[in-house]
User: Fold this.
Amino acid sequence: MDAAATEQIRAGMAYESGRTAPPEGFPQFPDIPSGRYVDPDFQVLEQENLWKRSWLYAGHEDQVPEPGSWFLQRNTGSPILVVRDLEGTVRAFYNSCRHRGGPLVKEDAGQSRGFVCGYHGWSYTLAGELTAIRDKRDFVDFDFSCRSLISVRCEMLGGWIFINEDPGAPPLMESLGPVAGEMEQFQLGNLTLVNSRGYDVACNVKVLLDAFLEVYHLKSIHQSTVDRFLDHRGTTITLWPGGHSRMTTPNRRPDWIDPGTMGMPAIPTVTEIPRDNNVSYNIYPNIVMPPAATGLPMLVFWPRTARTMRIECHWFSPKAGEEGLSPLWQTRIDNFERILFEDTQFAPQIQESIESPGFKGIPLNYQERRIYHWHEELDRRIGVNRVPTELRVTPVLKDWVETK
Ligand code: FES
Ligand SMILES: [Fe+2]
Assistant:
């Protein structure tokens, strides 16, 4: 984070702490229609235009350490095989044999020299090329070259592997916009995957995502945890194009250090703001990442059905030397999980509630503007004219998005 951004955030926190109303000219938000969390037709639009066309976190390079290492990613709704080929390139393919759709792999992860379909034995290289079929004599004019596995776009940000099911999507770095530059300080290529856990929650994915885009709830559901050390009244927010955003919340005491991380090795290039405050990024659409100099948690939100979702939590640490990872990691991960459970505790009841006639729409406040920004972007991705009128979010934040 450069000096100008650092100064801007410092000034922003001071301004937010002192203000008595939203800034001059800030718009009143039209209610977000509750149907966006419930309506099956809206879910189809969202699935086709957001989830099937966005860069999404698939995994970490530690999961494919050698040529032939692979893992299966099922969170996008289609089984996708992520593999390191013989040249060392990480690639992604649908786990669908080009004959009659047999799965190439059935486990979650493994190591192979190529892939042989278990149904009739068609064989593919690690790069997805079809090399052999059984009883070739029985196919008329068979052309191997047009029967390679169907590839899925796959690009890296440091050690993070992203996939995108839209063949025509702009490159990952372009889609990330200013987020890519902000990530440089964390040296994503020098981190190691410490731990991954996943949790199924009975709510629409947006119910829980919304909860991680604001700190308005700190005094209620995190009263005895996060609220004790963060001052939500000083929270300053940057909205970026493409739906991405950053939220910075000051510690109540400027010299506060999380006791659970004391003594852990730090990433030396992490700048002052994320080191001494609570910063949280939303990498659109579904990553929430509140970094610390001593390591990064990444929350990834996945839709299942209109009423169910899965949240995954991945932890990344600076690579350890011979001494190995700090024993503090286990406690740190467990503590974070407890806070996560505070966030998920109402989600199923919120889902029931917003499906009932007792709920009409969501009146967001200035503090909750990242949620509105997220929803505005969703409509842009779907194509505003395709969103049924009663489910649209009227764009009002254009002048509050930082474009430089
Ligand atoms: S489905 Fe794979 S070889 Fe037939
Ligand atoms: Fe929370």
Remarks:
- The pocket of FE2/S2 (inorganic) cluster (ligand 1) is lined by residues 97, 99-102, 117, 119-122 (CB under 6 Å).
- The first strand starts at residue 32 and ends at 33.
- The two ends are 14 Å apart (CA to CA).
- The chain has a mean pLDDT of 96.
